[in-house]
Write a structure and sequence with these properties.
Keywords: DNA-binding, Transcription, Transcription regulation. This protein is 42% helix and 24% strand. It is an alpha/beta fold. Strands 3, 4, 5, 6, 9, 10 and 13 form a seven-stranded mixed sheet that branches. β7 (191-195), α8 (198-207) and β8 form a beta-alpha-beta unit. α1 crosses α2. The two termini are 37 Å apart.
Length: 300
C-alpha cells in the first residue's frame, strides 16, 4: 500500500469515474485501475463495483475510503506545518460570515476541531443575515458564507448542508400544542410574532398573507424576546428545527414546536456560498469538510 493508491481511491470515490479521476490526477486510466486492483488484492476486499452508474464504493470500500481520506489530510497537514516552520508557507486565513442559527449550533464545535488541527490558520467570523452575507460574497469580502439558500445565491458556488422543517412555536398551555401539524387556518385570530428579517417577511408573504384573520402582534430582532412571549402564552412564533436545537425553552417543555404545513411541510435549506470569481482556497475546503462532518454527527 502506498500514498498514491489512497489518493486514487479517494478521487475515484469523489468523481464516481476512473476516467475523470485520471484527468484530475494526471495519471493514465490503466494506471489507476491497476493500482486499485492491486490494493484490493493486497487488502482482500472489493473497494469498488463497476456499473453503468460508474465506479461505486462497496460498503466495506466506503469505510476504507473514509480512512484513506483522513490519512491524506493528516499527511497534508504535516507537509504544510513543515513548510510553515521552514518559512516556506505563510499561515492561512479564512474569512467566514454566518447566520445566527449556524453560529449557535454546529459552528462552535466545528471551529474547535478545526483550530485544534490547524492552529496556524487565522479565522475571522462575522454574524449577519443571509442577504447581507450574499452581498459580502458578491464584493469578495468573505471566503465562505453560511446562509439560508435563497434565489439570490444561485449565481455563486453553493451547496446544501442541512434541510430543516419550519415549525410553529406555541406555549405548552396553548390548545394548539396538541396539534400534530399547524396550517394557516389554525393561525386565524392568533397573536403572531415574527423575527424581523427579510426571509421571515418572505415566508409570511408566501404562506400567510392570503389568509384572512392573521394577526401580527409585533416583530423583533431578539430571538429571546420572541421565545419569552411564546413561552408565556402571549404569542405564537415560527422557527426551524436547526434554530431550536438545544433550546432551553423547548427542552423544558415551555415551548412546543409543531410542523407548519401549507399544502406540504415547509422546508428551509441551509448551506454554504462562495464567490464565483474567487479562488476556492485550501483553507475554505478544509473548513467545509469539518463542518459537513460535524453536521453528519449531529453533535452541537
Amino acid at each position: 500500500m502506498n500514498i498514491e493508491q489512497l489518493e486514487y481511491i479517494v478521487e475515484v470515490a469523489k468523481t464516481r469515474s476512473i476516467s475523470v479521476a485520471s484527468v484530475n490526477l494526471h495519471v493514465s486510466q490503466s494506471g489507476i485501475s491497476k493500482s486499485i486492483t492491486n490494493l484490493e488484492h493486497e487488502l482482500g476486499v472489493k473497494i469498488f463495483t463497476r456499473s453503468r452508474m460508474g465506479a461505486i464504493p462497496t460498503e466495506t470500500g466506503l469505510k476504507l475510503i473514509n480512512n484513506a481520506y483522513e490519512v491524506l489530510i493528516g499527511i497534508q497537514k504535516i507537509e504544510e506545518e513543515a513548510k510553515i516552520l521552514n518559512g516556506e508557507l505563510s499561515p492561512g486565513k479564512l474569512k467566514l460570515a454566518t447566520i445566527p442559527s449556524m453560529l449557535m449550533t454546529y459552528l462552535p464545535k466545528t471551529l474547535a476541531n478545526f483550530k485544534k488541527d490547524y492552529p496556524y490558520i487565522q479565522v475571522e467570523i462575522t454574524e449577519q443575515g443571509s442577504l447581507d452575507i450574499i452581498n459580502d460574497i458578491e464584493q469578495n469580502n468573505v471566503d465562505i458564507g453560511l446562509i439560508v439558500l435563497i434565489e439570490e445565491c444561485k449565481d455563486h458556488l453553493n451547496g446544501t448542508l442541512v434541510e430543516t422543517e419550519i415549525n410553529v412555536c406555541v406555549s405548552k398551555n396553548s390548545l394548539l400544542a396538541y396539534n400534530e401539524i399547524i396550517t394557516p387556518k389554525d393561525l386565524v385570530n392568533q397573536p403572531i410574532v415574527l423575527y424581523n428579517s427579510h426571509l421571515w417577511e418572505r415566508f409570511f408573504q408566501k404562506h400567510l398573507s392570503g389568509q384572512k384573520g392573521i394577526n401580527i402582534l409585533f416583530s423583533s430582532n431578539s430571538t429571546e424576546v420572541i421565545k419569552k412571549t411564546v413561552a408565556e402564552g402571549l404569542s405564537i412564533g415560527f422557527s426551524t428545527d436547526l434554530a431550536l436545537k438545544g433550546d432551553q425553552y423547548v427542552q423544558k417543555g415551555d415551548i412546543v414546536p409543531i410542523p407548519f404545513v401549507n399544502n406540504e411541510v415547509a422546508i428551509r435549506s441551509y448551506g454554504w456560498i462562495h464567490p464565483k470569481n474567487k479562488h476556492f482556497t485550501l483553507e475554505a475546503k478544509k473548513f467545509l469538510h469539518y463542518l459537513k462532518t460535524q453536521i453528519v454527527k449531529g453533535d452541537i
